[in-house]
Amino acid sequence: MNQPGARSRRTVSTPRGPARVSLWWPRGPVRGTLLLGHGAGGSAWSADLLALTRLSREGVLVGLVEQPWRVAGRRVAAPPAHLDQAWVAVLEKITGGRRAVPGPLIVGGRSAGARVACRTAPEVGAAGVLALAFPLVPARRGGGTGPSRLPELLIPEPLLVVQGHRDAFGSAADVAGALGVAVQRTPDGTRRQVVQVAGDHSFSSDVSDVVQAARLWLGRVLPAQNAAEPGQGVDNSTQNG
Fold first, then answer.
1. Are the CB atoms for 111 and 201 separated by under 8 Å?
2. CA-to-CA distance for 17 and 55, rounded, in angstroms?
3. What pTM was computed for the model?
């Protein structure tokens, strides 16, 4: 397995302020691009998202997108409509023009980032969605849960949900039941899949099961080989979008 290639960073203007994209480039030909968004709490990059950058060793260009509210140093996430607007603006600039990242494009993220990716997948032309720790039901103050977010998962694109077995926002069994599918240990070729991994909404301290699920699924939705060479269309330097 090759060592990952260069990491680049771009600042991209959006209607909600500047966003930031960090890209992990493969050394060899690029099979496709995986762009991931972060959640609404904790640090900008969780262990699972950072671990997924290892997939650059296997021909996948991996990008982590920081929403404008994060870049601005705010602690409270922006409203969903603002998140979607910024995300779409970033993807339009990252996937268009002479510095476009190679396709096919897979989008995803964890928690709030997964929701954004699902809601906007058709608009950005995604070939698939990787949803990590999807918050099926919101927690309410004083106990109980809010209405189901199932409609956000009912997208036409291929979907993989990677969910902890005891996630308080909806376990793997809860999400699978809502979608009308069976919980799986490893991905197969079905359009909507839910893979159960260890842990809660933050997963466990060892996220190798998350990376393995994503790796196997991407092996089905991305071509084994793509013509794009690393860096083709985008230079590996800090740039303003």
1. yes
2. 29
3. 0.90
